[in-house]
Amino acid sequence: MLYFQLWNARLAFAGYLFLKTAAFYMKRFWYIALAGLLVLFLIWGKFLIFPTYHKDMYQDNIRKTVLIPKGSSLRQIAQILETEHLLNSVDWFIFAGKISGYQNKLQAGLFTIPENMHPWHLLVYLTQPTLANIKVTLPEGISAIEMAQILNQKLNIDSSYFMSFVNDTDFCRRVGIDANSLEGYLLPETYYFTYEKDEEDIILTLLAGMFSIFENDSVLFQMERLGMNRHQIITLASIIEGEVVVDSERVLVSSVYHNRLKRGWHLGADPTIQYIIPGPPRRLLNADLEIDSPYNTYKYRGLPPGPINNPGKLSVLSAIFPADTRYMYFVASGDGGHHFSRTAAEHNRWKSKFDQIRREVRRKERRKQWIN
Question: What is the pLDDT of residues 9-45, one digit of tens each?
């Protein structure tokens, strides 16, 4: 009897140990299973919710140009992207931005953003987006302040800060210009700039365009032959720019001014008078020609102190390489061009014809006003 009691006790103890061991391993199994599920979830999240991003993944996609203003919050950025149909879920974008820490790395500016980007890729992309290039055309013959206004409208630069560089004598010396202003040295051309580009960088780009004209050996040789320095050439070019509409006439107008300079005549250039008269261009009066100013080329011989506008490349090259003529005069033809003459008598005949055209235009204008 005692034997069976011991045997039953052993069986009971063995059963207890078995159940205890089984329970232990079952508990471990569930821990391992849960850990495995967690790993699988993280892998799923990594490759499906947060897939790997490569910079060239969307290079063939159509792009949209989008402005992200400075100081925009994560939600504001998400709403802009949603409005541009670049993002479907604002809340997910905000959640991903917060848990990843990217919300503090998103850039502001004008960017080109590929369409149909994965939301996670879009978030990553905006930490180092591609800046949009903006086409800016600066017409020949405009002033520096007019350039500043165009650049302000196109790029949202600070026009006052831009002009502070233009009129900074120390800055002029630093960039190699022996003048009190950069007026005339800012080459008008079509450029591509990024939004809110640094004002000084823009000016250096415009200056580089003008400086490049004078890096040619033939240009330097011709300037030496003419006995003129860069400042004088640009000053003359600005007058030519103010006179000419037809490109082919630039070298002819240049020849007239060079011939007058050689003979010691007054240049008699109307654009220099317009420069010293306040307001928009208008018909000159005899009283205007008596204004006492070094820019009055009817009153003072030689070139004025500096450029009166920012001339284009064609006018600069025309000032350096004038046509070989004996012309001393020119007068408007009434169709945008000019008639050129060697003698005063010939010039007066052309001038008389132009005056007749002008009288006819005024007569028609008065008649039109009377009818109205």
Answer: 554 555 555 555 555 556 555 556 565 555 555 445 5
Per the DSSP assignment, residues forming a β-bridge with 331 are 339
How far is residue 135's CA from residue 191's CA, in Å, rounded to a whole number? 6
Total residue length of the chain: 372
Asked if residue 3 has pLDDT above 50, the reply is no
* Residue given tokens 């009166």 in the structure block: 308
Rg (CA), the chain: 38
Helix (H, G, I), strand (E, B) or coil at 240: helix
Question: What is d(CA 158, CA 199) in angstroms, rounded to the nearest whole number?
Answer: 7
CB 50 within 8 A of CB 118: no
Q: What is the Cα–Cα distance from 321 to 303, expressed in whole angstroms?
A: 17
Q: Identify the CA nearest to 182 among candidates 168, 192, 195.
A: 168
Which tokens belong to 306?
């500096």
Domain segments of the chain as ranges: 1-49, 63-131, 144-213, 217-327
Per-residue DSSP letter, 175: T
**What gap in Å lies between CA 173 and CA 182, rounded to an integer?**
10
pTM for the structure as a whole = 0.80
Q: Are 166 and 184 in contact (CB under 8 A)?
A: no
* Homologous superfamily of 63-131: Endolytic murein transglycosylase (3.30.1490.480)
- Residue 161's CB: how many other CB atoms inside 10 A? 12
More confident residue, 23 or 170: 170
